[in-house]
């Protein structure tokens, strides 16, 4: 399985996502999240629903020690308090030394100086993946001033150049969330057209996706899987579950609960029929 997952040339994204989801559930990756206070509970529940093991360890003096044994790490800059900023740097230092995959989510980067400075410092530590909306990715690449708070004011396609620039600069997989998600390693791309607009009506819709990326990267590490495939697989699983949750939802409240149920119920073999994906090279 690992040889097949090592390159997208030997496997389609839906097939790889199915295998990675199955492997994650068989061997739940311990996924450390240093994330914003608004979304902690939802993020932890999303990880549990997909089959991962969440750990919201963000205290200085513990974050780095815990990260040494984690399978994957998410650093989300939604509410970067002084304690969280120090904990993030501590944890990133630990996973970098251990060779553990980690994800940077530069929430609202650009217009706000504290998080922008921290985001650039963390990006220089070469995250395995960077996830953000189009405006955040443009701002992190230095090509715009950012969006309106956490909301994107740019399209996914408008951020392609910035995503490729960041991927090549830092050796990262870059995921741009939007109506059509874009995932690139600077040479290859996946466009994923699944998902639902209700994801934008729930606090933590994007933040939870960053956590799933960390879980899939952590779960894929022992398979020697391609990080591009792992990040794209997390996106596909999450957006297919969102579509299913939206079918039965009366609004954003029931959608949020339904998304957790859909992540839990999604079977690996169901991804191929649901996926709307397109591969490309640059």
Précis, in short:
With 282 residues, this protein is α/β, with parallel strands linked by helices. The protein is 49% helix and 15% strand.
Distance between the termini: 27 Å
- What spatial order of strands do you see in the largest sheet? 2-1-3-4-5-6-7-8-9
Query: What is the name of the CATH architecture?
Result: 3-Layer(aba) Sandwich
By CATH, the superfamily comes out as Ribokinase
CATH class: Alpha Beta
Low-pLDDT runs: 1-10
- Gross geometry: globular
| Mean model confidence by pLDDT | 92
Strand content: 5-15%
> Main beta sheet: strand number and arrangement?
9 strands, mixed
- CATH level 3 topology: UDP-N-acetylmuramoyl-L-alanine:D-glutamate ligase
Helix content: 40-55%
Which structural class do you get from the secondary structure elements?
alpha/beta
Helix/strand order, N-terminal first? HHEHEHEHEHEHHEEEHHHHE
Oligomerization: single chain
The number of distinct helices, counting runs of at least 4 residues, comes to 12
List keywords for this structure.
15% strand; alpha/beta; 282 residues; UDP-N-acetylmuramoyl-L-alanine:D-glutamate ligase; 12 helices
Textual characterization of the structure:
It is a single chain. The chain is of the alpha/beta class and 282 residues long. The protein has one domain: UDP-N-acetylmuramoyl-L-alanine:D-glutamate ligase (3-Layer(aba) Sandwich), CATH 3.40.1190.20. The protein contains 12 helices and 9 strands. It has a 9-stranded mixed β-sheet with strand order 2-1-3-4-5-6-7-8-9, sandwiched between helices. Helix 5 links the parallel strand 3 and strand 4. Helix 2 crosses helix 9, helix 2 packs across helix 10 and helix 9 crosses helix 10. The longest helix is centred in the last third of the chain and has 22 residues. It is globular and about 40 Å long. The N terminus is likely disordered.
């Amino acid at each position: 399985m690992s040889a097949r997952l090592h390159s997208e040339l030997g496997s389609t994204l839906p097939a790889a996502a199915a295998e990675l989801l199955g492997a994650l559930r068989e061997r739940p990756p311990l996924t450390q999240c240093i994330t914003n206070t608004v979304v902690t509970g939802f993020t932890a529940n999303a990880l549990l629903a997909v089959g991962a093991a969440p750990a919201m360890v963000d205290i200085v003096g513990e974050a780095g020690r815990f990260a040494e044994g984690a399978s994957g790490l998410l650093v989300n800059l939604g509410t970067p308090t002084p304690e969280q900023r120090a904990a993030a740097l501590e944890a990133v230092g630990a996973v970098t030394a251990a060779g553990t995959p980690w994800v940077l989510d530069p929430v609202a980067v650009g217009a706000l100086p504290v998080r922008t400075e921290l985001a650039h410092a963390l990006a220089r530590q070469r995250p395995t993946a960077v996830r953000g909306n189009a405006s955040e990715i443009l701002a992190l690449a230095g090509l715009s001033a950012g969006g309106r708070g956490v909301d994107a004011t740019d399209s996914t396609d408008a951020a392609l150049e910035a995503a490729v620039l960041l991927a090549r600069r830092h050796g990262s997989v870059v995921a741009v969330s939007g109506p059509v998600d874009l995932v690139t390693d600077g040479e290859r791309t996946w466009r994923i057209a699944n998902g639902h607009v209700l994801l934008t009506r729930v606090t933590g819709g994007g933040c939870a996706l960053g956590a799933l990326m960390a879980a899939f990267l952590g779960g894929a590490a022992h398979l020697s899987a391609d990080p591009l495939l792992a990040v794209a697989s997390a996106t596909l699983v999450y957006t297919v579950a969102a579509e299913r949750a939206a079918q039965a939802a009366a609004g954003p409240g029931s959608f949020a609960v339904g998304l957790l149920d859909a992540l839990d119920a999604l079977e690996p073999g169901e991804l191929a029929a649901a996926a709307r994906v397109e591969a490309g090279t640059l």
